Amino acid sequence: MLNQNRSNQLFERAQNFIPGGVNSPVRAFRAVGGKPLFMQKAKGAYLYDEDGNRYIDMINSWGPMILGHAHEGVQQAIARALPDSLSFGAPTAREVEMAELIISMVPSIEKVRMVNSGTEATMSAIRLARGFTGRDKIIKLEGCYHGHGDSFLIAAGSGALTMGTPDSPGVTRGTALDTLIAPYNNLQAIEQLVSENKGAIAALILEPVAGNMGCIAPQPGYLQGLRSLCDREGIVLIFDEVMTGFRLAKGGAQERFGVQADLTTLGKIIGGGMPVGAYGGRRDIMDFVSPSGPVYQAGTLSGNPIAMAAGMAMLSYLNEQTDFYQQLDAIANRIVSDLKEVLQQLGLRYTINQVGSMYSLFFTEQNVIDYDTAKTSDTERFGRYFRHMLEQGVYLAPSQYETLFVSAALGEQELQQLKTASYESLKALNRA
Ligand SMILES: N[C@H](C=O)CCC(=O)O
Predict the structure, then answer these.
(1) Ligand 1 within 6 A of 212 CB?
(2) CB of 36 shorter than 6 A to ligand 1
(3) According to the model, what pLDDT value does residue 1 have?
(4) Closest protein CA for atom 1 of ligand 1
(5) At which residues is N6-(pyridoxal phosphate)lysine found (predicted)?
(6) What CATH code is assigned to 72-320?
């Protein structure tokens, strides 16, 4: 049994002063049972909790720690920036360099605006699409998650789905009516929505690879079909690449699948672990943003110098490597093939989805291609699996509906530990 005394004490204290004891719901371990672990530090592939337990980290801060924790290049860039002050509320050279670097790496982005989180990026992107098209409605896909802006907390994935509140109270009826919902991977359903709402749809927003109902890949031709439909109907196609950006390729999912978005939202990796988001895309659309255009969006801390220093260090590193993504994918491929071998040895037929360095093990035998099929997963079984893995030193995402993120810091020793832990955990589950 894990010694969790100090974490438990902190959780007790936290519950008095922080709703549910955590600052983001999935962290509470509600869906997997048990109490959350409070982390003290991390280095490379490992997390260390307040009780001194060590875990292989398969969340990596939900994506940003693609190089592993406390990467020297990123740490040093922050240290170099610190003496120059923490915030100016005025333009800096680093923001210009950051914009140039993002644009050089993501071909569909011609102009970009920095914000402070993925949520800000998606909220700003749909306002911009509405201002640009003069239309009110957006299409959002079931189980996709675009942060906690009101327009997106309808059939939402991630923590909202995990907590059983995919339609959050507090979202006004009017806002909800402007968000039209369609299933993921179903082009026909979107075509129908568009024909029923001709000329009224400003934007279609989706995660090009869904990561917030577990990992789900777009089916062949799906993204291309959406692109053609949006072109035909004058709808702004928004790819939420907060998870997939700079993770699935230098140019994100759009490079990997060969489909360009009109607007792209970014976060996570672009801050190197600091709170950063961005939205960018076609010049004619981005020029609608204030002060070059009428659509208002602002932020005191946007383009924060320390966050820009961390993000620049991270993106420059990724940009300079020639075969980084092949190597990262190879690590993920090995983890997935080990897991398949373990399932086979134990005679289990669970579903594994993987796209590059994102993957999920679903406790269902069905093909998981959308929200409904993701929900066929046995979440109680997942919870038990999660706890067994934790006991064996592996920290998975504490929800069936979150993808796992592979980091480049995983080496042979960690891969072997992962395989053994999976085998022992699934065997124990099977026995129960
Ligand atoms: N799916 C979310 C991040 O991408 C989960 C993290 C959170 O809500 O705290």
Answers:
(1) yes
(2) no
(3) 86
(4) 158
(5) 268
(6) 3.40.640.10
Each domain of the chain, given as residue ranges in start order, spans 5-70+323-431, 72-320
**9 C-beta closer than 6 A to ligand 1:** no
Helices (H), 245-360: 252-257, 283-286, 305-320, 324-345
Do the domains at 5-70+323-431 and 72-320 have one common CATH topology? no
pLDDT digits (tens, 9 = 90+) for 199-209: 999 999 999 99
In three-state secondary structure terms, 109 is coil
pTM greater than the 0.90 cutoff? yes
257, 283 contact by CB (below 8 A): no
346 class by beta-carbon count within 10 Å (0-12 exposed, 13-18 middle, 19+ buried): middle
Ligand 1 and 159: CB distance under 6 A = yes
Determine the distance separating the centroid of ligand 1 and the alpha carbon of 62, expressed in angstroms: 6
Distance 348 CA to ligand 1 centre (A): 29
Mutate to test the pocket of ligand 1, among 26, 276, 404 (most ligand atoms within 8 A of CB): 26
How many angstroms separate the CA atoms of 387 and 19, rounded? 23
Number of Cβ atoms within 10 Å of the Cβ of 226? 24
431 band by pLDDT with thresholds 50, 70 and 90: confident
Report the separation in Å between the CA atom of 159 and the middle of ligand 1, taken as the mean of its atom positions: 7
- Amino acid in position 342: V
**Residue 410: which of 64, 1, 32, 66 has the closest Cα?**
66
Span from the CA of 212 to the centroid of ligand 1 (angstroms): 8
The CATH label, of 3.30.420.10, 3.40.630.30, 1.10.3290.10, 3.90.1150.10, for the domain at 5-70+323-431 is 3.90.1150.10
| Cβ 402 under 6 angstroms from ligand 1 | yes
User: Within 13 Å, how many C-alpha atoms sit on residue 67's CB side?
Assistant: 23
Whether residue 360 has its Cβ less than 6 Å from ligand 1? no
Alpha helices of 134-237 — where are they, by DSSP H?
158-162, 173-178, 187-196, 222-233
Name 206's bridge partners: 239
* Residue range 204-248, pLDDT digits in tens: 999 999 999 999 999 999 999 999 999 999 999 999 999 999 999
Task: Please state, as a whole number, how many other Cβ atoms lie within 10 Å of the Cβ of residue 431.
Answer: 6
Split at pLDDT 50, 70, 90, the class of 432 is low
Interface predicted TM-score of the whole assembly (ipTM), two decimals: 0.97
